[in-house]
Amino acid sequence: MKRKPYFCQNTIFGDGHKAKYFDDLESAKAWLKEQGGGTIKKRNAGVINDPFIGEIRTWGEVSQ
Asked: Which of 22, 40, 45, 54 reaches 20 to 30 Å from 3, CA-CA?
């Protein structure tokens, strides 16, 4: 099963908070616009360099 590469969450805290995974950036942007804004992150877009392990791929922010 392929994991969806994009993750969105709106900027509302508490009961109105929503988050969702997407296959493509266009769908993620459209959903975020409906929610009134927030952030989009992409799987493996960020990098952390650990001196013992080496390069670790993480979620990286794509847009707000």
From this structure: 54
Indicate whether 59 belongs to any domain.
Answer: yes
40 falls within a domain: yes
Secondary structure string (H, E, C) spanning 1-64: CCCCCEEEEECCCHHHCCEEEECCHHHHHHHHHHHCCEEEEEEEEEEEEECCCEEEEEEEEEEC
Looking at the chain, the whole-number percentage of residues with pLDDT higher than 90 is 67
Residue 16 belongs to some domain of the structure: no
Within-domain flag for 55: yes
